[in-house]
Design a protein that fits this description.
This protein is 7% helix and 51% strand. It is mainly β. It has a single domain, classed as outer membrane lipoprotein receptor (LolB), chain A, CATH 2.50.20. The chain has a 12-stranded antiparallel sheet with strand order 6-5-4-3-2-1-12-11-10-9-8-7, with no helix packed on it. The longest helix has 14 residues. It is globular.
């Protein structure tokens, strides 16, 4: 009995740190305590694992007014993106693939809310909020009260992304077509 209890305690002690504090001032599982589905500040660093093997990282490298400059580092050359936070909390994305900036995450999200955006070739994509109270489990954390957004990338690919309050994007899954999964594995918020 004492050996079983000791093994249980060792197991508990070594598995509990899955949501341990990162080297930044915030934790991977709880974020910065805000209700923002995508908090942004210079120095923020989010690490992801894609398909259980490829490591990627996004770093906010600079800011000009409401615009934040993001460097995305992965298996290929670095990619640069610009995110903009509007006064109402909406987060917009602007990168070279899209003709104009587009709504990425609404500040006041409502279940069923929809919007569209177009790429530089004129292809239109559609996004829809599936839930504002979704839960999702990653290898590190259980996230509750997440914003769940469905993005119809094209007729063959549909992506679901979960944004946790105070954390930002925590998981995305291409659920139709070329299946892939990305999940947050490291977080530093400034």
């Amino acid at each position: 009995m004492k050996i079983s209890l000791a093994l249980f305690v060792l197991f508990f002690v070594f598995t509990l740190p899955a949501c341990k504090k990162d080297s930044g001032s915030n934790t991977l599982c709880t974020g910065n305590g805000t209700n923002s589905y995508f908090p942004l500040a210079v120095g923020d660093n989010r690490q992801f694992i894609v398909n259980n093997s490829v490591q990627t990282s996004t770093v906010i490298t600079g800011q000009s007014g409401s615009y934040f400059y993001e460097e995305i580092i992965g298996s290929g050359p670095a990619f640069y993106d610009t995110l903009m936070v509007a006064a109402n909390g909406d987060v917009y994305d602007k990168n070279p693939y899209y003709a104009t900036q587009f709504l990425l995450v609404p500040g006041s999200a409502q279940t069923g809310q929809t919007w569209s955006y177009s790429d530089t070739l004129g292809k239109t994509y559609y996004q829809k909020i599936i839930s504002v109270q979704a839960s999702t489990l990653t290898s590190s954390c259980l996230y509750n009260n997440c914003l769940e957004i469905q993005d119809s990338l094209n007729s063959n690919n549909v992506k679901i992304t979960f944004y946790a309050p105070g954390v930002g994007p925590v998981q995305s899954m291409v659920t139709v077509g070329a299946a892939s999964t990305s999940e947050l594995t490291g977080l530093i918020l400034k």
